[in-house]
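CHAIN AND CONFORMATION:
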Amino acid sequence: MQTLMSAPLNKPCNIKAIHTSDTKLLARFISFGINTGASVIPLHHSSRHATLALQVQGTQIALRESEAKKIEVTY
């Protein structure tokens, strides 16, 4: 499974699935525009790969490593 954490940087990818049953986390993702079928661009990791910055619909956001690993992508 390819996740956002393993996606190549600065290349668009599409969200294939979100693997969590946490409804609060799902609601947070949706509020950012992160949902199945959305296109995102991974931009850069923090120094220890604790977070991942990505561009979603023209907005830059950061996700924790644990959150980014729950998002399956295709590129």
In short: DSSP finds two helices and five strands in the chain. Residues 12 and 41 are 5 Å apart (CA to CA).
